[in-house]
């Protein structure tokens, strides 16, 4: 009896285990299910519609309502605009039904399953509504800016104006500089590019003629020592595209320019690229140039090319360093000085960011200029009593303005004292200075001194020969010798 009960309990435990296992399996099946992938398709119909309306001309819109608007002159909106602009202008002019009806006229032809509408700011102009907007799960928008129209509660403005400024072309300006001194002879400047304007200013030593590419381009009579400027606007036809030569030729063949420049205006499409080049002016004559060049940044390399013809030795000095010395034996020659040579002679770091002086000329030559200019000259003469000393024998003297025959320096005969010779010398000086070419206006001034300066013994600068000589004739030898007074 006891054994039978134990067997029954054992079967009960096995059944319970199987039941628990079944529950676990069912739980797994119910709770764990495979993921389901759902594809969400994003629509771009609103963007496509906006592109079509902004690119399609209203005149090309083919429906009966659009045709009616085009044939209605009272509408007052130009039809050569895009459909979107036409709708915007209708709304800006205060039309209420027409914009909405026009939108509906083409919206109804679209087979859409989504809501779609056209708004001006917050105002609904028209569209197709399938589901109330409040119930929509997704809302997509696209925008298009319409320029030149505006509408508010008090006024309707159809069009506005906008302006856009831009450069259709740009002129470039460059300068060819004449340094401190450029001479002496006929001078040439080489200008590159398509020149559309040229102005020149400089201190010229005398009269000269200008030639552009060998063609006479004006004659000039500047005042030496005074800046002189002129334009070549009347001779722009003498310039060509490419290399242009501007010559300054003096009748005497002996011209120099004591500083100046050529201001050149180029067509922007033909701007020359000099890439940091500094050009010397050409000199046909006695080479004598004081110049300089500016290094705008760090100087990394430098090369020099000299093209010249000289039987005499010429020299080139940059800064305080001698770079070249030699001659061409009377034949044209070209000398190239490479960076390897120049970098060993010059301190590039000290030249960077600075203006570097340049001297180029003929060695061991004396530069003599014969330049005629207006002159203001003073004659300073000693009128002291010692000027009465006789230079010949005689008894007539004017010492202390007293006619005497007993002065120690006088003897028998006629006395021609130093004062007489001073008068004669001043008269000759006045004639020499004033009797010049009519092209000049020289002036002479007189100062006669003794112990003091008397006004009657002086004369201001003047070209009046008679008045000057009258002052000289009134000089008398008297008093002490105050040289400082004369100065």
Shape: elongated
Q: How far do the termini sit from each other?
A: 167 Å
Number of strands: 21
Overall pLDDT confidence: 78
**Class of secondary structure makeup:** alpha+beta
Biggest sheet features: 12 strands, antiparallel
**What is the count of helical runs?**
10
Low-confidence stretches: 391-414
Strand content: 25-35%
Work out the helicity level.
10-25%
Rg value: 52 Å
Tally of distinct domains: 3
How does this structure look, described?
There is one protein chain. Strands 5, 6, 7, 8, 9, 10, 11, 12, 13, 15, 16 and 18 form a twelve-stranded antiparallel β-sheet that branches. The chain has a three-stranded mixed β-sheet with strand order 19-20-21. Strands 1-2 form a two-stranded antiparallel sheet. The radius of gyration is 52 Å and the shape is elongated. Mean pLDDT is 78; it is low at 391-414. With 487 residues, it is of the alpha+beta class. The chain has three domains: 45-131 and 151-157, no CATH class; 172-362; 376-486, no CATH class. It contains ten helices and 21 strands.
């Amino acid at each position: 009896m006891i054994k039978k009960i134990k067997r029954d309990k054992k079967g009960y435990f096995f059944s319970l285990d199987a039941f628990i296992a079944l529950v676990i399996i069912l739980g797994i099946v119910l709770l764990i299910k495979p993921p389901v992938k759902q594809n969400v398709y994003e629509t771009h119909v609103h963007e496509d519609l906006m592109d079509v309306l902004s690119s399609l001309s209203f005149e090309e819109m083919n429906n009966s309502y659009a045709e009616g608007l085009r044939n209605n002159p009272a509408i007052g909106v130009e039809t050569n605009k895009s459909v979107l602009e036409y709708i915007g202008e209708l709304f800006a002019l205060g039309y209420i039904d027409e914009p909405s009806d026009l939108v509906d006229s083409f919206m109804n032809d679209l087979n859409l399953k989504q809501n779609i509408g056209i708004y001006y700011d917050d105002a609904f102009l028209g569209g197709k509504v399938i589901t109330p907007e409040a119930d929509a799960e997704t809302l997509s928008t696209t925008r298009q800016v319409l320029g030149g129209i505006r509408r508010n509660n008090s006024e309707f403005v159809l069009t506005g104006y906008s302006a856009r400024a831009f450069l259709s072309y740009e002129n470039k300006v460059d300068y060819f500089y004449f340094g401190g001194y450029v001479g002496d002879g006929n001078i040439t400047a080489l200008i590159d590019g398509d020149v559309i304007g040229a102005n020149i200013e400089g201190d010229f030593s005398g009269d000269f003629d200008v030639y552009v590419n060998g063609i006479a381009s004006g004659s000039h009579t500047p005042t030496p020592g005074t800046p002189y400027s002129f334009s070549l606007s009347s001779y722009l036809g003498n310039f060509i595209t490419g290399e242009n030569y501007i010559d300054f030729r003096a009748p005497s063949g002996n011209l120099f320019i004591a500083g100046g420049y050529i201001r050149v205006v180029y067509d922007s499409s033909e701007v020359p690229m000099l890439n940091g080049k500094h050009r010397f002016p050409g000199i046909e004559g006695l080479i004598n140039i004081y110049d300089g060049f500016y290094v705008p940044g760090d100087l990394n390399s430098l090369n020099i090319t000299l093209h010249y013809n000289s039987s005499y030795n010429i020299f080139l000095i940059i800064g305080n360093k001698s770079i070249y010395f030699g001659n061409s034996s009377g034949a044209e020659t070209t000398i190239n000085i490479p960076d390897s040579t120049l970098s060993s002679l010059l301190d590039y770091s000290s030249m960077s960011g600075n203006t570097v002086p340049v001297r180029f000329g003929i060695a061991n030559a004396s530069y003599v200029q014969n330049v005629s200019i207006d002159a203001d000259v003073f004659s300073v003469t000693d009128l002291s009593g010692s000027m009465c000393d006789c230079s010949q024998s005689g008894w007539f003297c004017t010492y202390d303005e007293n006619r005497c025959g007993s002065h120690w320096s006088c003897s028998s005969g006629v006395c021609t004292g130093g004062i007489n010779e001073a008068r004669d010398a001043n008269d000759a000086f006045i004639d020499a200075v004033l009797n010049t070419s009519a092209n000049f206006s020289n002036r002479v001034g007189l100062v006669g001194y003794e112990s003091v300066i008397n006004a009657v013994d002086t004369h201001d600068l003047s070209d009046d020969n008679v008045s000057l000589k009258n002052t000289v004739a009134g000089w008398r030898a008297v008093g002490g010798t105050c040289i400082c007074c004369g100065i």
